[in-house]
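Q: How would the structure tokens look for this protein?
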Amino acid sequence: MISSWTVSGETALSIRVRLLCDLSIRLHVFGCSSSLVNPSHGGSVLRVVRRGRPGEWLGVLAVEHEAGGWVLAWEGNWCRASQLDQVAQQVAHRALA
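A: Here is the predicted structure in token form.
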């Protein structure tokens, strides 16, 4: 659970953005380039560039889970946000393949 990372009164939007920014930093360690996109409709998305595929990217979402806590989702996969290092490794593997 991300509860140990949250600040009292923090909004879902700020948690989502912070999770995706933290993931972006971890992905950089694996050699991945990424950018946070905040569309006018919907939530923030972390776009991870796919190596060797110009113009293609992998999208990662941070979603508040109905049972509590947060999950990160990408290409039909998901993992608890508390396992951010594991998520970074799995997303990097996909993006660099």
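The mean pLDDT is 89.

The longest helix spans residues 12-29.

Upvote if useful.
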